[in-house]
Specification:
Elements (H helix, E strand, L loop, with lengths): L1 H34 L3 H6 L4 H11 L7 H9 L12 E2 L17 H8 L9 E5 L5 E7 L2 E6 L5 E9 L2 E7 L6 E10 L2 E3 L3 E3 L18 E4 L2 E3 L1
Antiparallel strand pairs: 1-7, 2-3, 2-9, 3-4, 4-5, 5-6, 6-7, 7-8, 8-9, 10-11
């Protein structure tokens, strides 16, 4: 009897995996079609054989049922595009249950290791902009992880793009569990574009220019000013 139950269980599991794979491929296809409509794609990657190969390879590797792993695979279509205006996030259905990434690391040892790291160094101890939460930012396999020192949850993942610039995934429990931020910078002890800064550094507020009016003037072909 146990054999037949096991066989039935495996059959149902295979059906579930196949259904998830079909959904993942549909999401990938939709994203690829949307990307092809973007001016930045047309300028940079239209007709690029390597990009097409990347897309085809991703279609063959979407059997996972891990939602965040799927999100990371979809991001591989976005990373090659140099366009800071691209936003990308996961909008789950009502059945989705958010779960933070939570590496099993000794938080006390991490805090001791990175306390005292110079403020002009990307790695180190960070505070939320309101000063209520403390984090540690550390590298692993060429990626940076921002981990809460109170909960152990990963709050953000930073992927280097070029000097002191990153594509960042920010975790936001709720209707949008994670979102991509592009061109996040590090300067003056703060992650510009994300709500984190090093300890004992000034927090600079954005300049409020008010409700001013501007005029755009063209001074040459493809050159203008505001």
């Amino acid at each position: 009897m146990g054999k037949y139950i096991l066989t039935a269980f495996l059959f149902l599991f295979i059906l579930k995996v196949n259904a998830q794979e079909a959904k993942n491929i549909a999401d990938l296809d939709f994203l690829y079609q949307a990307i092809q409509q973007m001016p930045s794609y047309k300028d940079q990657l239209k007709g690029d054989k390597e990009y097409e190969k990347l897309y085809q390879n991703l279609r063959k590797d979407l059997k996972t049922t891990d939602d965040f792993e799927v999100f990371q695979k979809l991001l591989q279509l976005i990373y090659p595009i140099k366009d800071n205006h691209i936003g990308f996030y996961r909008k789950p259905d009502s059945t989705y249950q958010f779960a933070y990434l939570k590496p099993a690391l000794n938080l006390l040892e991490l805090e001791q290791k990175y306390t005292g790291v110079p403020k002009d160094n990307l790695e180190g101890i960070y505070l939320s902009n309101d000063g209520k939460s403390k984090y540690v930012l550390y590298p692993k396999d060429s990626i940076y992880y921002l981990q809460s020192l109170s909960t152990g949850n990963i709050d953000a993942i930073l992927k280097p793009t070029f000097a002191d610039r990153f594509d960042a995934i920010k975790f936001l429990p709720g209707k949008v569990p994670y979102i991509l931020y592009r061109n996040v910078g590090f300067s003056y002890g703060a992650l510009n574009g994300l709500p984190y800064r090093k300890e004992n550094v000034k927090s600079y507020a954005g300049l409020n220019v008010g409700d001013n009016k501007y005029e755009y003037k063209k001074i040459a072909e493809n050159i203008g000013y505001l």
